[in-house]
Design brief:
Blueprint: H1 3-8, H2 10-33, E1 36-38, H3 47-72, H4 76-95, E2 99-102, E3 106-109, H5 111-130, H6 143-165, H7 176-187, H8 200-236, H9 242-246, E4 252-255, H10 261-268, E5 274-278, H11 281-289, E6 294-296, H12 302-307, E7 315-318, H13 323-336, E8 341-345, H14 352-358, E9 362-364, H15 366-378, H16 384-392
Parallel strand pairs: 4-5, 4-7, 5-6, 7-8, 8-9
Antiparallel strand pairs: 1-2, 2-3
Length: 402
């Protein structure tokens, strides 16, 4: 395994921002809850600014988590948002670097989380920059999602502008912030009741906000739940989602599934990330239930190999019972990534050279190998059984010297 890629690869671009988000949220909550401030920065930074940094820090943490969802989909806008939010989180961590007093808890050094927050934020930036090319997808919103966003934004603007224009006919509504607050709690059906209409015109307007706002919220919620439902359906059908596939690197592609594939899967499990591409839906569903990454598609087609990240794969394995199908899959894999290591298993001995010509770097014939060991053992050659045991369990330290 390539350690630099482990620390600065695709997974790091997801894990590090998540840690920053959690620390930012925790640091913000600690400072919001504080009743007094002391420490190196306590006298330098006004309490109002520190408390504001606490609120905004918690919001930054939540926003970073939303950006991580976009990073999992390799969205370019999510990359830009994360690159902007990481320095913001670092600055907020510096502002909140003090000792705070929390009711019923006592003096708590916020530096215990703010210093790691600053360090991780600064560490995440070069990781994001090094992996910039991976996040190349534009936002691909469906018509329904665009309509949901426009409806939600339009209803909020309508409610805010209208309630502010009628502010004299509402209780406790005098600023644009009050107007937006009223619109938000009304459209979301929370309705605290602290801002109420006092005239018939204001009541009619309030009813229109309820109708338009709840409808737009319902449409937006549906558009958000749609992808989640699609994900569950994909898993039920034995398919990985695009978000899961996008995180793969230095993995192994297993093209096709057959009797020879089962022991290969057993050997790969726990050793390295891998994806099985098979056209058999029943097999794909069974493998998915065993927490094995699988893609239901023709293993000789370009599209599923590209989705499975063949450009970042460490190796490709083709070992079904159909040498012809394996040759087609190998040919496609070699075309898409000439540098990848391709290993094939030949069911028939005469197909070994054919698989090599198709692009396989290594071709192994289980029948020839097994026959050789059996014959050598029958001729009295000692150690054949130990060799077989060693091949079946290469991790057994007792056989390491064989």
């Amino acid at each position: 395994m390539d350690r630099p890629r482990d620390w600065f690869g695709a997974r790091a671009t997801i894990v590090l921002p998540v840690l920053v988000a959690v620390l930012s949220f925790v640091t913000g909550v600690v400072n919001i809850s504080a009743v007094s401030i002391s420490g190196p920065l306590g006298d330098l930074i006004p309490r109002s600014i520190q408390r504001t940094a606490g609120f905004t820090g918690a919001l930054t943490g939540f926003t970073l988590l939303v950006s991580v969802v976009g990073l999992r989909r390799r969205l370019r806008i999510a990359w830009y948002a994360t690159v902007v939010l990481l320095p913001v989180a670092a600055v907020q961590g510096l502002v909140q670097n003090s000792a705070v007093s929390i009711p019923f808890v006592g003096s708590v050094p916020s530096s215990a989380v703010s210093i790691p927050l600053v360090a991780l934020s600064l560490l995440s930036l070069p990781t994001m920059l090094l992996n910039r090319r991976r996040f190349d997808r534009p936002i691909d919103l469906s018509t329904a999602q665009l309509a949901a966003g426009a409806a939600l934004l339009g209803s909020l603007m309508y409610g805010t502008a209208g309630s502010y224009a009628l502010r004299d006919e509402f209780d406790n509504l005098s600023t644009a912030t009050d107007a937006f607050y009223y619109t938000l709690v009304t459209a979301s059906t929370v309705g605290y009741g602290d801002v109420t209409p006092q005239s018939q015109q204001a009541k009619l307007f309030g009813m229109s906000v309820v109708v338009l706002g709840t409808a737009s919220f319902a449409i937006a919620l549906g558009s958000l739940l749609g992808p989640a439902i699609e994900k569950r359906l994909s898993e039920a059908l034995g398919n990985m989602t695009d978000a899961q596939l996008d995180l793969l690197e230095n993995h192994v592609l297993v093209l096709g599934h057959g009797d020879l594939t089962e022991p290969i899967i057993e050997e790969l499990t726990g050793e390295i990330d891998f994806v099985v591409i098979t056209p058999d839906t029943e097999t794909a569903t069974r493998l998915q239930q065993q927490d094995i990454a699988v893609l239901t598609a023709d293993p000789s087609d370009e599209e599923p190999m590209q989705r499975a990240g063949i450009e970042d794969a460490a190796a490709v394995v083709a070992a079904t019972n159909d040498d012809a199908q394996d040759a087609l899959a190998i040919l496609t894999a070699q075309t898409l990534n000439p540098a990848v290591n391709i290993v094939a298993a030949a069911t028939d001995r005469e197909n070994i050279e054919k698989l090599r010509r198709a692009g396989a770097d290594t071709v192994i014939s289980p029948a020839v190998l097994g026959g050789h060991l059996i014959v050598q053992s029958a001729l009295g050659r000692e150690g054949m059984e130990n060799i077989a045991d060693h091949l079946l369990d290469v991790n057994d330290e007792d056989d390491a010297d064989i």
